[in-house]
Amino acid sequence: MAITDWPAGERPREKLLQRGAAALSDAELLAIFLRTGIPGTNAVDLARTLLQHFGNLTRLFAADEKALCAINGIGQAKYVQLQAVLEMAKRALQEEMRSGDALNSPVAVRNYLQLLLRGRPQEVFTVIFLDTQHRVIATEEMFSGTLTQTSVYPREVVKRALALNAGAVIFAHNHPSGIAEPSQSDHLLTSALKQALDLVDVRVLDHFIVAGSACLSFAERGLL
Q: What distance in Å separates the CA atoms of residue 116 and residue 123, rounded to the nearest whole number?
């Protein structure tokens, strides 16, 4: 059945206008983005097909052009639009972090890091460099691959912090496994980085682990 034949209160666009975006399911939100379906399949059903194929929104957003365009009804134009939407969301959250003390915008920091790191196929180590007032100076992906104390070099982090005249840092990396709990290597790495940065008076404010929809904070766990 075409969406236009649905009761007005059940159509995704009308539902959003009446009840707000949070009231919509993942499929309904995705259907609004898709706008149209394909012959015999409306936009909501196409959205459900996409979610079933990739598993969830996180994996859908992380899909490359080839994987996404392999789905009937999704072409290069939709892939480009999706990438543009994701990039705008990242920039909006980054602007929110830059607008003041990052510690006063914990939700923006978490949302930004989740959007940046979840769904990545390999581990990526990111550093948010801040000034002494905890305002964001820069966000940089510094290492990738299997992250251990030997693959993330504290001297490189210290060197970059000094170059940016940073007064504090926030670390973040992802767990492609989907398990947010820190490993022994994560603990050792955090300790080594903290010790190295203490020598140059740069504070480590937090270390986040992003895994799927979860985002674990070392500071909240009392692990720093």
A: 12
45 vs 139, 193, 206, CA distance in Å?
38, 48, 41
Collapsing DSSP to helix, strand or coil, 127 comes out as strand
Q: Largest Cα–Cα distance in the chain?
A: 67
pLDDT in tens, 131-176: 998 888 999 998 887 655 447 789 999 999 999 999 999 999 999 8
- Ranges of H-type helices in the chain: 12-19, 26-34, 43-54, 57-62, 65-69, 76-98, 106-117, 154-163, 184-198, 218-221
Amino acid symbol at 40: G
Cα–chain-centroid distance for residue 130? 19
Nearest to 214 by CA among 180, 177, 166, 165: 180
Q: Which residue has the tokens 């990738």?
A: 144
The pLDDT tens digits for 174-214 are 998 888 899 998 999 999 999 999 999 999 999 999 998 78
Q: Name every residue whose Cβ is closer than 8 Å to that of residue 11 and which is 6 or more positions away in sequence.
A: 3, 4
